[in-house]
């Protein structure tokens, strides 16, 4: 079943509230997906620096790892964020692989931080302190596993490019074929999860020169199955449903924000919701909001 | 926890779902006898909860102030359910009789498999409105999404706006009236002549929905089954 939430703020005054608003939305979606949860938050960035979100097994001593590689890390439960200059990134990744091979880089970008774990979504959000995070936009997911095992690797969001992430409700029927095609193009997909294939497909299309809108439009031709995608980029977020529109979706727009939920319940606690424009995204129609626009 | 029963208006039972549980509300509604004096219920703060006022079987009015989630008023018998807001998936699913009025938009599968009664949606309905309808009358003042009245068996679907792709796919005997454009007809669904008897039928449905005189019956077109898919025939295999 799975639950998806997304929030894109138009009013900068709400930015300190982003995490709290998303945490509440994710909490409501617990019963759509109690297996695991995750979220990506687009917070502040430092020009010239790349944020790496790291994930290690429970008990990983991130402070020690930071000292060893010569960069401070900001730990949050099993994850940690590390900021390095673009020129240092390759060296830091190599050092990480050497010093702490059990730690993985699960997201990179100038602003995106990505957290996910197995467990009840409300607990996952609490463990990572989502409520206290600020930013311009964020997406989240509560998973009811169908196409692959209940593991942290199988949790959403999936990030396969800088500042790009995707959450998915549904199941893709041709993910094995798309995976093989992507492999032929040199694109590596790390997990058995069908949703990571969708994320990698979009990253591949964008690398080929597509805008996000074009990449989403192409996915209507190339990805078969049931899906509602919510995707995040450095400056915006997009929504796409398959042409049959099997998976539920509802959106709310006010002067202050655009919000997405698998059900209205997820939106019910947002400020000004009673006067928001509520609508159901149409099947096979690409929706995209951008900060830069 | 007990339901907060307070007389808001004369003879009304007010239930605030911010402080009362949905389970208790539905249980209280299910207990209503045919001759109940608690004939008018006002529900505050529904917040998109699922299965609100589902399974009613008493001649009462339930007015819900705000958006509801899935399957609101599902399986309804006798009752009038008014939603002052949007409705989620499957509003009025399998209703048997009574009246449901959604004053906002409805999501997918509104009135699905409905056997009787009247469902009026002031806004738009999404995909598969009236899927497998079996006698229900549905009036949508806005537009309906794709595959509406899919496998419709009996009843009427009246749309004042437009219809999406594959209207009436694999239709049996439901009667479809659309005032606006139709993006496409599904397998075995065809436009049919609007005879006097159909105009009278449409007028009756519009009257029941409080719309008689508000719209011109001459603007509607009728769609129905070509009846070529009733029995399996190998020549039609690609249409199934």
UniProtKB/TrEMBL annotation, chain A:
Which UniProt keywords are listed? Glutamine amidotransferase, Transferase
Q: Which Pfam families match?
A: GATase_6
Q: Output the CDD domains linked to this UniProt entry.
A: GlxB
Every Glutamine amidotransferase type-2 domain range: 2-292
Write one Gene Ontology MF term: transferase activity
InterPro entries in the cross-refs: GATase_2_dom (IPR017932), Ntn_hydrolases_N (IPR029055)
Quick check: keyword Transferase in the entry?
A: yes
User: Which named protein is this?
Assistant: Glutamine amidotransferase family protein
Q: Where does this protein come from, organism-wise?
A: Ancylobacter pratisalsi
TrEMBL record, chain B:
InterPro entries named among the record's database cross-references: Glu_synth_asu_C_sf, Glu_synth_lsu_3
Q: Which CDD domains has this protein been placed in?
A: GXGXG
**SUPFAM superfamilies linked to this entry:** Alpha subunit of glutamate synthase, C-terminal domain (SSF69336)
Q: Name one GO molecular function term.
A: oxidoreductase activity
> Which residue stretches, if any, does this entry annotate as coiled coil?
none
User: Do you know which PANTHER family this protein is assigned to?
Assistant: TUNGSTEN FORMYLMETHANOFURAN DEHYDROGENASE, SUBUNIT C (FWDC), TUNGSTEN-CONTAINING FORMYLMETHANOFURAN DEHYDROGENASE 2 SUBUNIT C
Give the protein's recorded name.
Protein glxC
């Amino acid at each position: 079943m799975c639950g998806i939430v997304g929030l894109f703020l138009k009013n900068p005054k709400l930015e300190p509230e982003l995490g709290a608003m998303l945490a509440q939305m994710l909490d409501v979606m617990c019963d759509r997906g109690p297996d695991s949860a995750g979220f990506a938050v687009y917070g502040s960035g430092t020009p010239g620096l790349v944020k790496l979100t790291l994930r290690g097994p429970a008990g990983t001593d991130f402070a020690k790892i930071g000292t060893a590689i010569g960069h401070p890390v900001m730990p949050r439960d099993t994850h940690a964020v590390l900021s390095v200059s673009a020129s240092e990134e390759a060296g830091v990744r190599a050092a990480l692989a050497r010093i702490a091979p059990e730690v993985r880089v699960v997201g990179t970008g100038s602003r995106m931080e990505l957290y996910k774990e197995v467990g009840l979504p409300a607990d996952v959000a609490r463990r990572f302190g989502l409520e206290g995070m600020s930013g311009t936009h964020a997406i989240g997911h509560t998973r009811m596993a169908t196409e692959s095992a209940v593991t942290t690797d199988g949790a959403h969001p999936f990030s396969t490019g800088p500042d790009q992430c995707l959450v998915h409700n549904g199941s893709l029927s041709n993910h094995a074929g798309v995976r093989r095609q992507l492999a032929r193009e040199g694109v590596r997909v790390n997990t058995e999860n069908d949703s990571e294939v969708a994320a990698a497909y979009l990253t591949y299309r964008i690398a080929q020169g597509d805008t996000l809108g074009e990449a989403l439009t192409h996915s209507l031709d190339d990805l078969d199955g049931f899906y509602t995608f919510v995707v995040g980029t450095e400056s915006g977020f997009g929504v796409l449903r398959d042409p049959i529109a099997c998976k539920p979706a509802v959106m709310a727009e006010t002067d202050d924000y655009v919000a997405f939920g698998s059900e209205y319940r997820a939106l019910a606690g947002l400020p000004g919701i009673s006067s928001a424009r509520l609508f159901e995204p149409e099947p096979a129609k690409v929706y995209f909001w951008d900060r830069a626009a | 926890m007990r339901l907060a029963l307070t007389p808001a208006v004369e003879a009304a039972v007010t239930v605030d779902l911010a402080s009362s549980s949905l389970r208790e509300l539905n249980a209280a509604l299910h207990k209503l006898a045919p001759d109940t004096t608690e004939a008018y219920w006002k529900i505050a703060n529904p917040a998109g909860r699922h299965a609100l006022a589902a399974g009613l079987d008493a001649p009462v009015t339930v007015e819900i102030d705000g958006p509801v989630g899935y399957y609101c008023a599902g399986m309804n018998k006798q009752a009038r359910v008014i939603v002052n807001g949007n409705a989620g998936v499957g509003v009025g699913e399998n209703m048997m009789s009574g009246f449901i009025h959604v004053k906002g938009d409805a999501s997918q599968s509104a009135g699905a498999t409905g056997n009787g009664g009247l469902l009026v949606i002031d806004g738009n309905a999404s995909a598969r409105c009236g899927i497998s309808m079996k006698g229900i009358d549905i009036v949508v003042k806005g537009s309906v999404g794709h595959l509406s009245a899919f496998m419709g068996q009996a009843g009427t679907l009246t749309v004042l706006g437009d219809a999406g792709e594959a209207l009436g796919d694999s239709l049996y005997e439901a009667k479809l009236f659309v005032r606006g454009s139709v993006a496409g007809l599904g397998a075995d669904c065809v436009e049919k002549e609007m005879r006097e008897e159909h105009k009278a039928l449409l007028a009756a449905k519009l009257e029941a929905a409080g719309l008689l005189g508000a719209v011109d019956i001459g603007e509607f077109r009728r769609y129905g089954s070509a009846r070529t898919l009733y029995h399996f025939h190998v020549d039609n295999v690609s249409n199934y």
